[in-house]
């Protein structure tokens, strides 16, 4: 199942790259972002970390829920810190970066939620 998750993660990453390329090719300075790939790398790395944590989990439902909540909270906190730091250093291009970052966040969150639903169903069937 881990290999299937990696294939899905690769598909979501390629989809995020394609969306950013389409936005950058619109020839509008409001949506052109030069550093959009940082958010793809960040979210793909976070998804890999979450998958690793899930596969290394024992079987206790309390620790599983704690791990899900803590990784989601940590990812959200890091996203807010990253957006805040980017807004300080590059105010001129902040809106375009935030659009790309927000789209990547939504896309990878949809991936994470659908993966969690499949993972918990598989775990429940195995019990």
Structure description:
With 127 residues, this protein is an all-alpha fold. The protein has one domain (2-122). It is built from four helices and no strands. Helix 1 runs antiparallel to helix 4 and helix 2 packs parallel to helix 4 (94-126). The longest helix has 33 residues, at 94-126. The radius of gyration is 16 Å and the shape is elongated. It starts with a helix and ends with a helix.
Name the poorly predicted regions.
Answer: none
Distance separating the two termini:
17 Å
Summarize the main sheet: none
- What's the pLDDT, averaged over the residues? 82
DSSP summary: helix tally:
4
Q: What percent of residues adopt helix (DSSP H or I)?
A: over 70%
Shape: elongated
Number of domains: 1
Task: Please state the structural category.
Answer: mainly alpha
How much of the sequence is in beta strands?
under 5%
What is the number of strand segments? Answer: 0
CA-based gyration radius:
16 Å
**Succession of helices and strands:** HHHH
Secondary structure: elements and pairs:
Layout: H1 2-24, H2 37-55, H3 61-89, H4 94-126
Helix pairs in contact: 1-2, 1-4, 2-3, 2-4
Structural key phrases:
mainly alpha; 82% helix; elongated
Produce a short descriptive summary.
The chain is mainly alpha-helical. The chain has helices spanning 2-24, 37-55, 61-89, 94-126.
């Amino acid at each position: 199942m881990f290999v299937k998750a990696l294939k899905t993660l690769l598909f979501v990453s390629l989809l995020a790259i394609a969306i950013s390329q389409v936005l950058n090719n619109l020839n509008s300075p409001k949506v052109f972002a030069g550093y959009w790939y940082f958010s793809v790398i960040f979210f793909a790395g976070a998804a890999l970390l979450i998958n690793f944590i899930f596969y290394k989990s024992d079987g206790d439902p309390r620790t599983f829920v704690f791990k899900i909540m803590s990784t989601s909270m940590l990812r959200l906190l890091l996203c807010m810190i990253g957006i805040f730091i980017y807004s300080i250093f590059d105010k001129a291009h902040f809106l375009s970066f935030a659009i790309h970052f927000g789209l990547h966040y939504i896309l990878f969150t949809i991936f994470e939620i659908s993966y969690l639903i499949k993972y918990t169903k598989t775990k429940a069937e195995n019990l």
